[in-house]
Amino acid sequence: MTRVSTVQNYNIMTANLMRAQTRQNDVGGQVSSQKIANDLKGYAKNAEVLTAMRGTQTRINGLLDQAKAVSNRLDMQNSGIERVGDATKNAREAIANALAAGSATTLMQQLGAAFGEVVQGLNTKSNGLYVFSGAQTETATTSATTMADLTAAPSTASLFHNDQYVAENRIDEQTNAKTGVLGDALGTDVFDAFKQMQAYVDANGPFTGKLNDTQVNFLKGLLPTFDNAYKGVIDIQGKNGVTQKRFEAAQTDLSNQADTLTSMVGGITDVDMADAITRLEAAKLAVQASAQVFTSLQASSLLNVLK
Fold first, then answer.
1. Class of domain 49-265
2. Could you say which DSSP state residue 123 is in?
3. 11 — phi, psi (to 5°)?
């Protein structure tokens, strides 16, 4: 006897076809996005864990971005400190060379150039801001330009325009560190060493040609002053270097944490592509099968029998 379809058969097959198409669309979306779902509802019981992990990711990435920014600033500080230190050392060597040669023909020109380097180092900028000015980042750390400014000013301190705010930044979620260096702390002893030289010149005239005994004695007494000033700069550079290392280590640690969290989140959200492609092919087959059965059911319609 010929089987005759009914409304119930049509409803069942239509529902099966629609479910198969929905399944195909869902799996197809997973394959194209490589994610299990596009919202938290799709992760069911893992949604709370996933939310917590993403919150942690945000915090760690924020700390990592800050560590990178601070490291860049510390690099610029190191460059400025090094410039001040090298210039101070060059000034000391110029004096020593003049003593050794017994002549100061080019001494003042060399000292003037070295002092210019000191000023440039103190007025170092990072992203357009003065790094040694404390919170006064838009104000030049020092207004001195030549050695003559040292004796013309009422005091060495008046030539520095930084405030006393020392920047402090987070290394990680538990640790803070002072990262700022103030211009007056870096440059006062250096300025005072050059100031002694300028004061002698103001009182006794410039150094020209062969050195006399008075000049020799003065320059010999000035060498320890430059040595102490240079040592102070190197001490500050060493402390800055220690801070740099701490932030470099923090960046490595934070990067590792970020990578681990990314892997853990991926373990929840990422699709197993081999499995997803297999399921997609199965879903396509299910749609084709449902469509074929639906077509066969149409052929067994009561109207066809009555014809």
1. mainly alpha
2. T
3. -60, -45
3-state helix, strand, coil in the chain (%, to 5): 75, 5, 20
Residue pair 194/115 in contact by the 8 Å Cβ criterion: yes
d(Cα 194, Cα 111) in Å, to the nearest integer? 8
What's the CA gap between 214 and 205, in Å, rounded? 12
Asked if residue 4 lies in contact with residue 305, where contact means CB atoms within 8 angstroms, the answer is yes
What is the pTM assigned to this prediction?
0.71
Find the length of the chain: 307
Please give the Cα distance from 126 to 120 (Å, whole number).
13
Domain ranges of the chain: 49-265
pLDDT tens digits, 23-48:
655 555 555 555 555 544 545 555 56
Which residues does 80 contact at the CB level (< 8 Å), separation at least 6?
Answer: 121, 122, 124, 131, 132
Calculate the dihedral angle through the C-alpha atoms of 152, 153, 159, 161, rounding to the nearest 10 degrees.
Answer: -140
> pLDDT by residue (tens digit) across 143-194?
999 999 999 999 999 999 999 999 998 887 788 889 999 999 999 999 999 9
Looking at residue 131, what DSSP letter applies?
T
Determine which helix (DSSP H) or strand (DSSP E) holds 167, and give its type and residue range.
Answer: none
